[in-house]
Amino acid sequence: MLNSVSWKCADGRIVRAFQPDLAGLPGKLRLIDQTLLPEQLCYVELADAAAIHDAIVRLVVRGAPAIGCAAALGLAAVCRNQSVATPAAFLAQVRRTADYLAGARPTAVNLSWALRRCLDSLEAKTAAPVEQLQDILLQTALDILQEDIELCRAIGNHGATLLQDGMGILTHCNAGALATGDYGTALAPLYVAAERGLKLRVFSDETRPLLQGSRLTAWELHQAGIDVTVICDNMAAQVMKEKRIDLVIVGADRISANGDTANKIGTYMAAVLAHHHRIPFYVAAPYSTFDPATPDGDGIVIEQRPATEISRGFGKITAPEQVRFYNPAFDVTPHELIAGFITERGILRPPFARTLAAAFA
Ligand code: MRU
Q1: Residue identifier of the C-alpha nearest atom 10 of ligand 1
Q2: Which of 189, 192, 230, 344 has the most neighbouring CB atoms within 10 Å?
Q3: pLDDT tens for residues 42-60?
């Protein structure tokens, strides 16, 4: 059994992962502002749709499962704050707000998945009083969050079977407690292994341009007492060649039916390097990240982010601004490079077209 991942604020309070302060609900969504980490651990309070949309776009809250949870809880909060007279008007407002929030980021399927589940929960209740519909919506959002915590825990238990004392693990971006309801996906096996007394040496790619690996993964693993070394993304090949890495584990934003996997830009590069060095490359994800409706990676929409993230990331001008920039936020790792998917249903192995379909039918 895992303990919840928690951190100590400057004022001494202990806070949990991205977790909204449930006392703030139903009218507000309170969550950690991840743009301020690791310098400051602060909460923001969001009460309207534009603020929640903006928080997802700006990566105040980020990571595929976390944006799904935040959008669902945010939808419930927003649709409680506005007074509408009839169930029909309420349902129209829920649909409008869900559509708007789903458009905040296109790649992570968990966002639209969570909002769809919220809409579905109201489907058969169209004649119920508005207050009852509001309660159903909130309960669905809380269920999504609770389920995500349990999924991550199961992923951690399955993934920990791959780990042995003394191993070197490379991860990319942040697929930890900050990116989920708790524990994470790629980091969950590391938390479980640490609880079982295994000593691991984790290498965290810095993850240009927004540094989720150095700002967030290194921060949360260090807080948990797990040995973590930050490397720049372009150092991974050398570190592998030096035989410091036994296993790579990353998260995912969307996994197509054949196993092609969208994750943070640079993941594909890490997978190619792992293949060259014969290091097993695993993807950890819950069922909500699998997208059977998309046959392969070519069908995955890749989010494009502003040039300024590259040209003046974190304030410093790092390139002449007159030149062109290209800033895809994600890439797609071909399924051939993936040794297995660590899911709540166990570790799924190739041929993925068959094993994924069987697991998530
Ligand atoms: O742009 P981000 O920071 O939201 O990207 C996050 C990732 O790519 C994660 O690896 C992925 O969402 C999995 S989180 C469990």
Answers
A1: 251
A2: 189
A3: 889 999 999 999 999 999 9
Distance 42 CA to ligand 1 centre (A): 20
Residues 183-224 have pLDDT tens digits of: 999 999 999 999 999 999 999 999 999 999 999 999 999 999
Report, in this order, helix, strand and coil percent for the chain, each rounded to 5: 45, 15, 40
Encode pLDDT of 123-149 as tens digits.
888 889 999 999 999 999 999 999 999
Q: How far apart are CA 357 and CA 361, in angstroms?
A: 5
Residues 6+ apart with CB under 8 A from 65: 110, 148, 151, 152, 179, 180, 181, 185, 286, 288, 289
Q: For residue 147, report the distance from its CA to the centre of ligand 1, in Å.
A: 19
Please indicate, yes or no, whether the overall pTM of this predicted structure exceeds 0.90. yes
Tell how far the Cα of 267 is from the centroid of ligand 1, in angstroms. 11
Angle (nearest 5°) at CA 257 between 256 and 259: 65
Q: What residue ranges define each of the domains in the chain, with the CATH number in brackets?
A: 6-152 (1.20.120.420), 157-359 (3.40.50.10470)
* pLDDT at residue 329 in the model: 98
**Crossing angle between the packed helical segments 64-81 and 49-57, to the nearest 10 degrees:** 170
Ligand 1 binding site (Cβ under 6 Å of any ligand atom): 59, 62-65, 108, 173, 175, 179-180, 184-185, 212, 251-253, 263-264, 329
